[in-house]
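User: Fold this, then the next.

Assistant: Folding the first:
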Amino acid sequence: MNNFSEYLIELTGIKKNYGKPPALIQALRGIDLKVREGEFVAIMGPSGSGKTTCLSIIGLLDTPTEGKYFFNGVEIGELNRLQRALLRRYYIGFVFQSFNLLKRATALENVELPLIYHGISTKERKHRALKALEIVGLKGRESHTPGELSGGQQQRVAIARALVTNPSAILADEPTGNLDTAMSQEIMNLLTTLNQTQGITIIMITHEPDIASYAERIINFRDGLIVSETINRRQ
């Protein structure tokens, strides 16, 4: 994908409704959001504010009811289901609060998994997975299963899995939600380093102000709308 857009992600007038009257739920009421390539953006807001719905739309896991979404200049609404799946597979990485690792698989096997769907050879998969694990500081832990790793190490495996496909953007949903303070700081330092050294765009949901402070820009959601935006001096 090589379009000449000023923004990697651009949402215009995005609305998302669930259900029908009288039980209609307006999760998003008209979101305008632009994210440049290489930005680190934190999204905050109370439960039900629409932040997770917005991230799901950005990650092509959901579709808006109204509005337009451009990813690197490509209008997502004009893509068919297969094209959307391919864009998600090749350009977007995901990191979740619950890690979502295969419990019986090793760290290496967990990181290799996305590459299987890319049709990459076994040798190349292993090479790229080993490199990703080294980048996140887990060299020597390749043969460990999730049960043999700490929570912070499991999240590092999840980040390596997101990295291994060389995505344009990583979407992180409460990436430190299951970690203690020390491990949370380690994960945030890692994400910041990846953003700064590799230019990966990061969009992160968090409810913790100290975690949001690692981002360059903090966007606050309430009742399906963006209510404020802050440019942040990172730690």
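Now the next one, as you asked:
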Amino acid sequence: MSKSILVTGGTKGIGRAIIERFAAEGFDIFTCARNEADLASLKTFLEEKHSGIKVLAIQADLSKKADVTRFVNEVKTIGIPDVLVNNTGVFIPGTIHDESEGNFELMMETNLYSAYYLTRGFAQEMIARKSGHIFSIGSVAGLTAYPNGGSYAVSKWAMLGMTKCLREELKPHQIKVTSILAGATYTSSWEGVDLPIERFMKSEDVAESVWAAYNLSPQSVVEEIVIRPQLGDI
């Protein structure tokens, strides 16, 4: 029986790199994003490149609880994923004391609440099955405070805390939980920045780290992976 992976925000950047890495190993794919055209393009690409895998690509805005619930229910009509990657995120720079009204709510709903509700959507089935691996795509902004991080940093500190709690709760049930704390990775969020691409990490490197962590024996788990550009944070 084929293994499957669910990656939120799977059409670009780190999410897409993870999907392509696991699809190359024969995993069926569940993913979502806000742009329906991007999802259709990804689905076509994967099915043409990797014959035999199944791809479910659903339009959803995971900052909205109703969309998270709908996405979970659609995935469940097919099955429970073996790997769950909470990758959806949004970054709006600013400072806590004077950022635009609503930034805090948007980033918490997108970066944290979506992962909370999605994980709860599959946790009981994973517990009953006694297997699964949950990855949270966090950030070094969840380890180190920095100027202009604002509510994004708050959401990533909270994500790390939630992931640590999940690790303790789920380890008796043979479910692995891993935090990926990534530094500046060249994705669409950084387009237009006056820095050479070589200064950033590659999305494929993050994906390779996820793949490596997944492939440990049942006796071991990587709890946290911190990945930074070779020359340090940007």
